[in-house]
Amino acid sequence: MAGGAGQSHPQSPHACRRGGTGLLLPTYKRRSRALGRMAVRSEGTNSAALVHFTLVLLLAAAFPAHAEELPADAPVAPAPARRHVWLALGEVTLANTAIWSVNRFIRKTDWSDVNPEVWKRNLTGSFEWDADKFTANQLDHPYHGGIYYNIGRDNGFTYWESGVLTFLGSLQWEVFGENNPPSTNDIINTSLGGLAIGEVLYRLSSMILDNGATGWKRGGLEAAAGLLNPGRGLSRVVRGEAWRVGPTPREWTPRHFSSFARAGYLQEGDAVTGQAGQGQLLVGLSLRYGDPFLDEFHKPFDSFAMDASFITRQAHFLSQAEVQGLLAVTPLVRRPQWQVLLGAYQFYDYVDIGNYQVGSQSFSGSLLYRHVLNGSLDVRATLDLRGVALAALSSDPSETNERGYDYGPGLGATLRAALGSWPWEYVGLEFKASWIRTLDGAPNDHLIQEGRLHADIPVFRELGLGLGGSIQLFRRDSLILDENIGPQANPRFQVFVSWH
């Protein structure tokens, strides 16, 4: 899969080169069992996936906030779309072949030199844990999984069916697209991350498309949606949907949607050494799609939230990103003033703060609570009990891992509470804790914690302007055999102006 580029440690003379399923992405280094390990740190994030991720949020921020009332005779759910199974498989193969051809014949990368002997080895050999950069594995792979995913979604597949296609697309690339052994973490990050990011891209591109438009307007809308969602754009062109006139599905426009931004000053530090980092500018972008308390729920991600923070320091431009999508929900208690729901969520998390890095794919069982105080003012709280399918967590290089981060599954819990008026949270509190068991890396377990207190107070509500700030603390405790390693703690303080 595709890799982020930037500054890295000196390359081992035995290091193999690796690229991936990104268009014209810089190559990066990867471990091969036969060739030994090498040190790889995420010192740069100038990858194509990061550029596109930023574009997604900027385009989505242009959508106006809205809360619509459905007519009484509106259908609760559309008829199932026809599935184009073989066409979807062909489009995934076409995408992989086209990207491999660019890397092999134009960029002439070493890792793309494949042949039947390599394919046989990859088909019969074992999987490995690679040593790619943190950004490549935790950002680029999920993004490219979203391309596979959206080929499936646009060909009539459901959320779960598209997940199967995403896995097959990733496996096809790992076996046939490069001469390195297939990677366990690539398959997991591409498949699960592709589910979360892919469905977000599908929903946002649906809000742009208008099947009834014609002429220049239709062309502009299709181009914008394709730029936002390349996998779906490819599929619509292949099937002729990009110019076919017809009805636009009602479900493409959510009842509740809001995007908002904040800009201000950020100060980071290291609580262990007492050193303060250099102050810098911060830009944050957030999306809220649907509402589990106010909307009917029919399909995964009928309600989701997406948040990202960007800072001016070049080496860590994308500081934090999170996607949380509601997979299923059922009411436990419904009263006029308060509700309790039982739900399930999928999470994609990415944190890159100085030398503290965490990326994970996880699922949860969740309790959701809402109490209406006055009008639209309410108090909300959520308790998530998470199962972490795979987490990448920064650690000191050791004799078993010079990558700079460990891989493993784990368990976690999140507690969130907020006072506000949808979608504006005036005051909120959040605490996360996760235990990670290392499968590849240093022989240790990790306990990671994050606490956050934030406020965003309306100043000119009619203009959507507010003033706010937040205090965050990221902490990692590692238990490594025969070593005494203290905790790592990174506080953050920010003040900002918000626009809703």
Strand and helix map with partners:
Elements lengths: L15 E3 L9 E3 L17 H13 L5 E2 L17 H22 L9 H9 L9 H21 L4 H18 L7 H25 L6 H14 L1 H10 L16 E15 L4 E2 L3 E10 L14 E8 L6 E17 L3 E16 L2 E19 L2 E18 L10 E17 L2 E14 L6 E17 L4 E16 L7 E12 L1
Antiparallel strand pairs: 1-2, 3-4, 4-5, 4-6, 4-16, 6-7, 7-8, 8-9, 9-10, 10-11, 11-12, 12-13, 13-14, 14-15, 15-16
Helix pairs in contact: 1-4, 2-5, 4-5, 4-6, 4-8, 5-6, 6-7, 7-8
Describe this entry's structure for a reader.
The protein is α+β, with helices and mostly antiparallel strands and 500 residues long. The chain has two domains: 16-243, no CATH class; 254-499, Beta Barrel (Porin). The chain has helices spanning 48-60, 85-106, 116-124, 134-154, 159-176, 184-208, 215-228, 230-239; strands at residues 16-18, 28-30, 66-67, 256-270, 275-276, 280-289, 304-311, 318-334, 338-353, 356-374, 377-394, 405-421, 424-437, 444-460, 465-480, 488-499. The chain has a twelve-stranded antiparallel barrel. A hairpin with a 4-residue loop joins strand 4 (256-270) and strand 5 (275-276). The longest helix is centred in the middle third of the chain and has 25 residues, at 184-208. The radius of gyration is 23 Å and the shape is globular. The protein starts with 15 loop residues before the first strand and ends with a strand.
